[in-house]
Amino acid sequence: MNRFVAIIVIFALISITSCKSDKTETHTKEHQPHWSYDGETSPEHWVEIEKNSDCDGNRQSPINIIDIDTKPTQQKDTLLKVLYTPKTALKQVTNNGHSIQFDFEAGDSIQYHGEIYHLSQLHFHEPSEHTINGIRYPLEIHLVHKSKSNAYTVMSVLAKEGAKSQLFEFFESFLPIKVNTTKEINQSSDLTTLFPKNKNFYTYGGSLTTPPCTENVNWIIFKEPIIVSVDEVLKLKNNMPKNNYRNEQPLNNREVSINTFQ
């Protein structure tokens, strides 16, 4: 009987040791370095952290756009069509620890160079990631569109401080939101009111501005900023990491076009 008890005790000890080992492995995996905008995991270290990314590529974003170096083209040559309805359906809002992100139901899209890109989400960078003639704006909004071939077209709207924006008031009505939290929205809004009155824009080929920094992005950056209030900027800022932007990347002989309407 004592031998039987001893065997049970040995098996129990083996089992406990095994469980402790498993828990240690899980703990280690959960605490692997993850990219951020600060310290040892800031953009300068993304290449080290994200081993299989394009973050060290030659077509990276964002960039500094210098007006005198851009190539003038006509709007009709770029074939950009914004196919948004007056009631774009917002599905949910998430604080993913990097930005505030609004996700959309399927339906809205743009057509760029003959290909359809479907609107999936928009998020914010404060201050802006792209700069124009060295000027960094208080805020940049990215409207992310994806094609069936998994290519991206991102429309960027820069913002400066001034009067209140009705659309921003709507977005911020869902704040505050804690990190790693999602709120269901299931409401609609007219996103076309987000764009500046002057529709001239810059275009160039680049990458996602966050890991994995994939280099299959068409960038459309409206030249004229929109106006939002100081309070709106601060409210958004309080729900995001400080300075959640990536620094200017080398142009590496890429061409930037300025597209104007006739």
UniProtKB/TrEMBL annotation:
Swiss-Prot/TrEMBL cofactor(s): Zn(2+)
A GO molecular function held by the record: carbonate dehydratase activity
Tagged with keyword Cytoplasm: no
Domain Alpha-carbonic anhydrase per the UniProt entry, residue ranges: 33-260
Statement: the UniProt record of this protein carries the keyword Coiled coil: no
Keyword list, A-Z: Lyase, Metal-binding, Zinc
Top-level EC class: lyase
Tree of life domain: Bacteria
EC number(s) given by UniProt: 4.2.1.1
One Pfam family per UniProt: Carb_anhydrase
Catalysed reactions listed for this entry: hydrogencarbonate + H(+) = CO2 + H2O
Membership in a protein family: Belongs to the alpha-carbonic anhydrase family.
PANTHER family for this protein: CARBONIC ANHYDRASE
Function: Reversible hydration of carbon dioxide.
The name this protein goes by in its record: Carbonic anhydrase
Species the sequence originates in: Polaribacter sejongensis
